[in-house]
Specification:
alpha/beta
Length: about 270
Amino acid sequence: MNLIKHGVFTTAALCVCGAAIAQPTFQSASPTAGTATSEKANANADKAMYQAIQYQNAGKQGPALVVIPGEIKSSNATFTQKFGPTNIADFAEIELSRANFQVLERTNLGPLLNEFTLAYNLGDPNKARGYLGMGKLRTTKYVVKFDILKTEQVAAAQQGFDGASVGRVIGILGAFSGSRGGAQAGAIGDTAVGSVKVGDSTGIWVIGMRYKIMDAETTEQVAQGYTEEKMEIGATGTSVMGFSQSQQGGVGLDTMVQRLVQKSVWEIDSKYK
């Protein structure tokens, strides 16, 4: 009897553990959840969700490295207000860890981080060697940084149809038709066609990122690479007789930076392990 109880307890415990191990999922609290607008918005949002990259050499242990904050050389105010070098370095640490590099957390450097970064940005090998003798930094082979070199809107396009002018023409033709029915039909046509409004607009941005790999001991550049991605933002809307629908969206700056980091890390993983 005790064994049976023990068996039941074990099974129940395993079930509980299995439930605890499963990744949590969450339901939307939006009052429009499940509606047509929700489904369209979610379908667009799914395309912007984080997508894990399968790095081809992830099975091979990479060398120890430190990611230092890079530079944002773009003069675009929207980008510089939203992003700092630290945000990009955070993304880089995540992806380099996924690619199986030995990433030393920048937080472990504590107050030395700024001086350590300055030594490499200035290419000061003597100062760099001084830091490399401290704690976990002794095993560091590479110092890596990611810089944003370009963020600019390169193209925009709009098109649309406003039925107001056409509606007025129909109304005028009805009024001059010489019949009451024609005038009424013209008035109805004026209202119906005049209410039609359709519009689309699209903007294309190009964002470019450079990565640099430096020898941790000499501060000399070992390798560098550059990659660009297009960011498309669009909106579309239709309005007819009081009924309207619209959609807007696109990949945001956060996602664009993360994808550029992923492309850069893929190249680092394939070439420099």
